[in-house]
Amino acid sequence: MGYDKSFFEKVFSTKRMERYFNLYPNDEARAILHYQCNLELAEAFYTSLSVFEVTLRNALSRELQTMTGRDDWYVVFANTLGLSRLNRYVTQASKQITGRHESITSSRVIAELTLGFWVSLLNSEYERLLWKDLRRAFPFMPKKECFSSFEYVPYIPKQGVS
């Protein structure tokens, strides 16, 4: 069986593959190779990105627990002016947990929160409310660079790099 355009569109979807085939309209093999290279590149980043996400999550969660004095620190977001928009992430995490027929616990909610959530805590809009406490999560990073270092993290595409 040959791996051609129709095979890749059937297996991975036309929508996902169209950008590769549009990039190389007269070279199907090159479009497929580009997609395969993209998968390999995403695979190469996977472990490092996973470790980064868990490390960031644990560090920020620890500081939020200290700040609020609660394991379920995220519940204060709903009633805190300037943080209530973050509650949508918590709601989504809770839906994921209940969708798996698991009970909602603070450790499950925290583990289910996305990398986008954790990085968003470091956005400048939360500087006044959170940064003083979250800064302790990065004790060896110069204060000037601490939060700007995370500015582009959410732009890493889920499918890897193209």
- By helix and strand content, what is the structural category? mainly alpha
Strand content: under 5%
Report mean pLDDT, rounded to a whole number. 87
Envelope shape: elongated
Describe the protein in words.
The protein has 162 residues and is mainly alpha-helical. It has helices at 5-12, 14-23, 28-68, 87-99, 106-112, 115-120, 127-134, 143-146. The radius of gyration is 20 Å and the shape is elongated. It is built from eight helices and no strands. The two termini are 26 Å apart. 60% of the residues lie in helices and 0% in strands.
Write the layout of secondary structure elements.
Layout: H1 5-12, H2 14-23, H3 28-68, H4 87-99, H5 106-112, H6 115-120, H7 127-134, H8 143-146
Helix pairs in contact: 1-2, 2-3, 4-5
